[in-house]
Amino acid sequence: MVAPRTLAARRTRRGGGTLRYETPIPHLPYNGILRTHLDVDEAETAIDAVLDSFRRRGVSFVWWVHPSCAPGDLGERLRQRGLAAVELVAGMSIDLDNWDPDPLPPGVDYVEVFEDDAMSAYEDLIVSYWELPAESQALVSS
Q1: Cβ neighbours of residue 118 closer than 8 Å, sequence gap 6 or more
Q2: How many Cα atoms occupy the beta-carbon half-sphere of 8 within 13 Å?
Q3: CB-based contacts of 110, cutoff 8 Å, min separation 6
Q4: Which of 12, 21, 112, 138 is deepest in the core (most CB within 10 A)?
């Protein structure tokens, strides 16, 4: 959850072959590149432009590299510029029209959050998981 005053300052940017998100929170995961589709002959320039924009802002960022990214060697191109893979995430999909979910294990509940107490618990989890310093915690809380 990003606080209302932060929502006005956040933006999604499409262009240059990327889809990225930016917020005033300078810590992970609040700035990043979600989608990359670059022509091979323009990839070097486009990658450098994106990296420069985040570095000028002085924010940490994540660049999601997945099988649908182009060019296919995007991960290697990012490594050559000093970026490192920090986490491998399994991506999966399912046709929901024919899906019959297994019952949840005992003690597991999916809950839609509407109450302030539940939202505060979620915010505490996010702040703790991402180890946000005090100056950024207020930007996360609602």
Answers
A1: 111
A2: 2
A3: 104
A4: 21
Its pTM stands at: 0.75
The pLDDT of residue 8:
46
Amino acid identity for residue 60 in this structure: S
What does the domain layout of the chain look like in residue ranges?
4-90
CB 1 within 8 A of CB 120: no
In the predicted model, is pLDDT for residue 38 greater than 70?
yes
Separation CA 18–CA 48 (nearest Å): 12
Torsion sign over Cα 128, 129, 132, 136? negative
- CA gap 29, 27 in Å, rounded: 6
